[in-house]
Specification:
Layout: H1 2-15, E1 19-20, E2 25-27, E3 31-40, E4 43-53, E5 60-65, H2 76-82, E6 87-90, E7 106-108, E8 111-114, E9 120-125, E10 129-133, E11 135-144, E12 160-163, E13 165-166, E14 176-179, E15 193-198, E16 201-207, E17 216-221, H3 225-228, E18 239-248, E19 259-265, E20 268-271, E21 274-275, H4 287-290, E22 294-301, E23 306-315, H5 317-326, E24 331-334, E25 343-345, E26 348-351, E27 359-364
Parallel strand pairs: 13-14
Antiparallel strand pairs: 1-3, 2-3, 3-4, 4-23, 5-27, 6-25, 6-27, 7-8, 7-19, 9-10, 9-19, 11-12, 11-18, 14-17, 15-16, 15-17, 20-21, 20-24, 22-23, 22-24, 25-26
Amino acid sequence: MKRMVTRLALLVALLLLVLQSGPASAVPGGITSKSLAVKTSAGIKQVKAVYVDLNDPQVRIFPVLAQGKVGKTESLMSMAKRSRAVAAINGTFFNSYSDMQPQGNLQVDGTFHYLNNTGSSLGIAAGNKIRFETIRFSITGTVDGPSKANLAPWDQYLKNWYAWSVNRVNTNPDAITIFTPARGMWTGVKTGTNVVVSGGRVVRVCCGDTVIPRDGYVINFGSGASAQKYVERFVPGDTVTYQVNITDTSGNDVGWSEVKHTLGAGPILVRNGRVDVNLSAEGMTDPKITRNGGARSFIGITPANQLVLATVTGATVRQLAEIAQKMGRQHAMNLDGGASSGLYYQGKYLTTPGRDLSNCLVVVR
């Protein structure tokens, strides 16, 4: 009887832990895949995971845009293979039933291709240094040239301008949007006034759907008075610059200039080893995120710089946070889920997405 009780106690203890299988396969540099069963408050959840040792200098991780553009889709496997990736996971949310625009921040090799002020972001700096932050952005710019040479000191503000976002189509008439080559050949926007910048200079001011220069961008000023008042500040030949300013939700600088790749999604699941889900602070209100269960994907990191890419079937976001914590993650963030949830490893799917994707995160070695 005593022996039976001991065995039962051992069985219960095991169920309270993460039960791991051995590596399904491995590649040089310590990139492995595993299947896990993780005990949560809602029962055991099945997890597919890829582990990556980011201390390996040959490993690189970065976001990939579908077809290399914003607003396009492509299969996860196709994006992984053309990137020569060992592993890949689906990335940020996107408008999968309409214009395929992403909904989270996307930065590749230092260039922002899309910006949005909701959720949180994964930042990747030199040396595979990973960080997760709830960041917010602003875009400020300057315009200068002969037409501004004689401005009085109190009129210097006429050299300033700002934008709402990058490559984000906005129907608000007061919106000011920068469209870069990542948008495609054309802006796709027929309203407002466009300032075309090539080689750092204004080349023309026009209206209607406009070609985006390969060496520049188009600033679209909406038809509203708040946006249109800036148009007269731009004269062909003027020099134009802009910068993306990144802060936390309180407006404090977070040193994001060191980050070269950004993937926005959210919410944060685990912070400093503790479950830390704050949906309202991240501006997330969709019931699919706030309360519903479904297929989930997440990314997490340990203090030793060990990355995990993981998918889970049938979990809420809070249950996902439990899973990430029990898997030993010091920090973790939710990614897009549902039919987008997908995990690729060594030429095959561990979790097959139910649709083509707008973007993904790849691991290359």
